[in-house]
Amino acid sequence: MAASRLYAFAATLARAPAVVSFALDDAGADLIERVHDAGGLVMQQITTVRQAQLAVEHGADIIVAQGGEAGGYGGTVSTLTLVPQVVDAVRPVPVVAAGGIADGRGIAAAVTLGAAGVNLGSRFLASAESPVGERWKKALVTHPSQDWIQAGFINAMNPNPGTLGLPDMPTSPAHRVRRTLGGANTRGRDRPGTRARRTQRGRRSRRQRSTTRGRRSERRSHPTRRTCGRDRPRARRRDARSARRGRAVRALAGC
Questions:
Q1: Which superfamily, per CATH, for 3-183+190-195?
Q2: How many helices (H) and strands (E) does the chain have?
Q3: Among 38, 58, 151, 221, which is 20 to 30 Å from 11 by CA?
Q4: How far out from the chain centre does Cα 62 lie?
Q5: Preceding omega of 192 cis (within 30 degrees of 0)
Q6: Does the CA dihedral 210-216-221-224 come out positive or negative?
Q7: Alpha-carbon distance 169 to 89, whole Å?
Q8: pLDDT confidence of residue 96
Q9: What is the mean pLDDT of each run of 10 residues along the chain (255 residues)?
């Protein structure tokens, strides 16, 4: 741990916090022991069962099982699947559920799965006290789940040094973001496996539009005449599709 972080950690312990929460990395036995010596409890956020077991071995008092629906750095296992597995693996250590929980129904579901409580984050972005713009607040509470994606490229551009400390941590933890801003059209984006095909179609359509514009400009510069194609540009005669079109024009012109 960097010297500045060690100083910040020591300053935190000097305030005798009731709970110290660790995330994105394994706290390790040494840091957990220092928290206990200061009279506090340790809460460790994890995204897999293996991480939960390691945290308990190091002395963590509370486990936060964060599913893949979480709004920040998260794993790939869903909250509904992860929570009961972690509860069984670390019993009797209390487990707090996190990821995709936004109302009383989610809290009730987490408790049913064995969680002792829940950890909410993204939902509070839509609160009256939040400094987030009204556009985002509205999106948070109105847009369906398929309008949100996890964008791993954000961490690739700005890596967090603690994201690789835990075992089983994805090499590129993702942030959950809106697929489009401002409620733009997302028709068809809820179909899985279509992104690559959409990209290819988009590239083809751009090439086709560019080719069509070029041919229109070409026709304006070289008007078609009833001369059986002798005055057509040489490049168009080399184009197979233009040649086929030329044969059709000549046939219509009676050449």
A1: Aldolase class I (3.20.20.70)
A2: 10, 7
A3: 58
A4: 27
A5: no
A6: positive
A7: 18
A8: 97
A9: 81 93 89 95 95 95 93 83 97 95 94 96 90 90 80 63 55 49 41 47 60 60 51 57 60 58
State how far the Cα of 18 lies from the Cα of 15, in Å rounded to an integer: 9
pLDDT value of position 215:
63
What is the distance between the alpha carbons of residues 77 and 41, in angstroms, rounded to a whole number?
26
What's the pTM?
0.62
Q: Bridge-partner residues for 64, per DSSP?
A: 45, 96
65 in Cβ contact with 100 (< 8 Å): no
Which DSSP letter does residue 185 get? Answer: -
CA pair distance 76, 69, nearest whole angstrom: 8
C-alpha to C-alpha distance for 13 and 17, rounded to whole angstroms? 6
Helix axes 28-37, 3-14, angle to 10 degrees: 30
How distant, in Å, are the alpha carbons of 19, 25, 69, 75, 160 from that of 157? Answer: 32, 19, 22, 19, 10
Structural domain spans, the chain = 3-183+190-195, 210-253
Query: Which residue reads 């936060």 in tokens?
Result: 64
Residue count of the chain, please give it: 255
Residue type, 45: Q
Beta-carbon contacts of residue 176 (< 8 Å; ≥ 6 apart)? 69, 70, 71, 72, 74, 122, 148, 149, 150, 151
**What is the reported pLDDT for 176?**
54
